[in-house]
Amino acid sequence: MDTVRYYDIRHVRGSATHVDIDNGVVESAGTSFYDHAVVRVLGPKGWGILTMENLDPAALPEPLVREALSLALITDDPVDLADAPRGILPLPGVGEDPLDVSLEEKTALLAGIEEAAHLPEIVNTRARYAESIEEVRFCDSSGIEYTYAIPRCGFSVLAVAARNGEMQMGRESHYTIRGLNLRHRQDLGERAAQTAIALLDARAAKGGRMRAVLDPELAGVFAHEAVGHASEGDLIREGNSVLAGRTGEAIGSQVLTIVDDPSLPEFGFEPVDAEGVAVSRTELIRAGRVNAFMHTRQTLAAVGNGAAGHARASAGDQPLVRMSNTYIEEGDSSYDEILAECRSGILLKGSRGGQVDPGRGVFQFNAEYGYIIEDGEIGQMVRDVSLSGDILSTLHAITLVGDDRRMHEGYCGKGGQSVPVSDGSPHIFLEDAMVGGNGSD
Amino acid sequence: MDLIEEILRAGEKQADEVEVYISEAESVSADLKRTHVETASGSKGFGIGIRVIAGGRIGVSSTGSPRDWRACLDAACASARLAHPQEWGGLPSPAALPPVPPIRDPRVALDPAWARNVLEEMLEGAGEHDAAVTGGSASASQSRIRIANTSGVLYEQERTSVGCSIECINERSTGYEFDASPYLEIDPRRTGERAAFFAEHGAVGEEIESGNYDLVLSPVALTQLLSHVLEPALSGRNVHAGRSWLAGKLGEECIGENLSIMDDPSRKAPGSTRFDAEGVPARRITFFDGGVLEAYAYDLRTAYRYGQESSGSAVRGGPGGAPSIGIHTLVIDGRRDTVDDDPAVYVHDLIGAHTANPITGDFSVELSNASWVADGEFETPVRSAMFAGNVFDLLSSVAAIDRDERIVGTAVLPRVRLNSQHIIGK
């Protein structure tokens, strides 16, 4: 097999446990099992990739490598791999191991959170717990081998309020790698309900250009959608990012530094990346300038500028360049200073997710709700409010960055794969934002 | 003993009823990075889903390993012990299944060279316009599912699917197109040509003033809004739980009177099926007839709970997925017409449709590949704009339904013309 330039095998075995409580009824609670392996072979040109279930860890890799090589032989893209530092981080400590708590007790704890959302005017509540315990084994043709097991768990709670035929929802969630997080969390159930009830009195936001303050959760999603995706080395290589070729260029105000760091013990933590490369902090934007891109070994070799260690993969899928923990670094403005500077505009809070077209440089994402800002004070609540715009001009519009960074957890989709991530930011002020909503004066 | 038989017999000793769902799939695919084939992949998948019912308590589990079925069965039984009991009328018995066009095309072969040829044809198509290809993909798969239960159901269905997709860029204008079918009937050349056309066409876009405009939504844009808002609103579970805008509105005119919306599992489409994911015969459901809400979608669990009848609407996300309520093949009908003779803003794609409010139907999205159209021709492209509205209001504003339709995911949808929709320009 002398045409095999490299191979690796990533074998992931795991269990997925869930609880689903709908309006006080335990609809479903149970555990399922999976066992996926991906064999990647770099042939004379490109990759051959084989995906299968139930790989015998003791089996010799040669037959699988030969089979993947036969696939690689139809490729014609000259792929090279950059050298990259290897190494694995210790796992962050776990408070209460979810494996030590019975499914019955998890169900009872989740029921308590759901119960807390039963406030007047709430017509439906739903709480879901999800836990995955994953064992990852990685080995490659250079003799590198790593194994680790990581627990990820968390819950979400949804409350729907209704009055006079009008319905609104509130949602809260928390996911972590630090152990079971279901105890003493009734406050989140109550908060979801309070948001839903408050939204019954909110009016639809009127869209248009205005000054905007983004809360830490939404600003974190902004960093992820508007800058993070456009800084992924595969998109840079394909010519599908507005940030390609702009290294060193000032694309935002000097107060803005945006980082992706898989080594942080947040929900997007990876002790080692999906091709066995050591993970580290990458400053995507430093003081408003394009600084570095996120890479796999392949995209680092093709593009340069940045660091490998950003390869991630869902169980049974091939590694892609992905974000992990992405955030805007703290600035020196207080929340009150930001509101005062805004004078009149809109405060956008929470996130229902977003999407970006990195080639076109256009992003869109939805806040869960917002407030009108008048004379530097928080005013009327508004619902169904979104933010969209051009990445490059929007980054210049950020003129103040707060000192109150917080991180939020979620999942990010790309190439049909979904991986756990966290995003974060302090409050930020945009002096010119494109806000969407279907309300009128 | 056959694996299914073995699981059913072992499960019967621990529960009142047992259901086994086995999914097997093989696929090949090849990926393009710019103009080169970077990756060729092959996969083999297997999954067992086990569901047990004991005293009205439903438990589920799944595994990817045929060797681990006993642990999976035990986990399903443990799961049932935790669930609340509910009214339950039994798993379905064998029944006559409706005829459906075959969804397996024997011509679909799992050959990486075929995938490579598809990529090359897409590249040729893309070469007709001034745009650079950034990436693309071609795939073919064969799959077989079997569902069996202790009431005697044992159904099997084989299906094939092929698909291709491509992305292009010209300056800061991007174009994305795809084609998919259960049959060897995709058109890679046209897929490449369309993606490159949108990238080239959008490069010279102009801004649009905020205001109300007539829109033509492509089947792609339409399905994005419907799948995130309309499909959940039709789910019997959401309706009875008070999470649907359509709750309590049976018999009311909820959308435009010229519009009917159905689930038609007998259509020649990727979601076509003779039986649903829990072994109930699939059937055509008319959700809206001339704008009037006629039906919701039910699986067995929801139907028994609320004194309804299953509409054969159970679907599974994969071999590990428990059955849930879904739509097999979403179809829109009504009087057919031309949609783009009079000037309108054509919207090919949307950014952020998944952020729509699934309960109220309110949405605010960014347009992608938008362009003025008139007399069926693309005219000046629209550089950038937001579109805010409500999905149910939008369905009341449908002024015309196109004669052509296309497969998007599991839906088969036409282009629709909408009157006076609010656009936020620059």
Automatic annotation (TrEMBL), chain A:
The organism's place on the tree of life at top rank: Archaea
A GO MF label: metallopeptidase activity
A cellular component term, taken from the record's GO annotations: cytosol
Residue ranges annotated for the Metalloprotease TldD/E C-terminal domain, each copy included: 208-437
Signal peptide coordinates: none
Record-annotated Metalloprotease TldD/E N-terminal domain positions: 7-57
Keywords: Hydrolase, Metalloprotease, Protease
Chain ranges of the Metalloprotease TldD/E central domain: 96-200
GO BP terms, alphabetized: proteolysis
PANTHER family linked: METALLOPROTEASE SLR0863, UNCHARACTERIZED PROTEIN TLDD AND PMBA
Similarity remark: Belongs to the peptidase U62 family.
Descriptive protein name: TldD/PmbA family protein
Organism (species): Methanofollis fontis
